[in-house]
Amino acid sequence: MNYFYEHIFIIPIIAFIISVIIKWLFSIQKKWKLDLNIALWSWWMPSAHTAVTVSLTTALGLKYWINNDLFILALTFTVITIYDAINIRYEAWLHAWALNKHIWERKFRESLWHLPSEAFAWSILWILVAVITFYL
Fold it and tell me: What is the per-residue pLDDT across 89-126, written as a single tens digit (0 to 9) for each?
C-alpha cells in the first residue's frame, strides 16, 4: 500500500494547495498585485472548495468503491458544493449587479459565480490529481 492510500485526508489538502497556487499564478499573470489573499478568494477559478470536495470524493471512490456509504456521502456534498458554485452564486451575482446599477454609494462584487464549463473542466483536474496522488 502507498502512503496516500493509508492517509487519504492528504489528497484534498494537496488539491487545495494546487488550486491556491494556480489561482495565485493566474493573478500574477493578470498583473494584479502579488498578494496571497487573491489566491484565497472563493469567487475566482479554480475553486478551492470544489478542489477539496472533488478530490476527496474521488479518493474515497478509489479506496472504498462507489457503492460505499462514505463515497455516497462525499458525492452528495460535492454535488451541493458545485451546485452552489454554479447556481446560487449566479443568483447572488444578479443581485449584486442590480444593486450596483441602482445604488452608487457601495459597490458589490459581481464576479461571484463559476460557469458550468469552468466547474466541469476544473473538476476533471481535481479527479486527475486525486487519481495520480492515490496511486503514487
Answer: 777 777 777 777 777 666 766 565 567 777 788 888 88
User: CB–CB of 113/85 below 8 Å?
Assistant: yes
Q: What is the DSSP string of 37-92?
A: HHHT-SSSSSPHHHHHHHHHHHHHHHHH-TTSHHHHHHHHHHHHHHHIIIIIHHHH
Grid coordinates given for 26: 493566474
What is the 3-state composition of the chain as percent helix, strand, coil, each rounded to the nearest 5?
70, 0, 30
Pairwise pLDDT comparison (32 vs 52), residue with the higher score: 52
Q: b or e along 14-41 (b: 16 or more beta carbons within 10 Å of the residue's beta carbon)?
A: bbbebbbebbbeebeeeeeeeeeebbee
Q: What is the pLDDT of residue 82?
A: 86
Identify whether the C-beta of residue 112 lies closer than 8 Å to the C-beta of residue 93: yes
For the residues 47-58, what does the mean pLDDT come to? 90
User: Can you tell me whether residue 101 is helix, strand or coil?
Assistant: helix
Contact 99, 119 (CB under 8 A): no
Decide if 126 contacts 14 (C-beta within 8 A): no
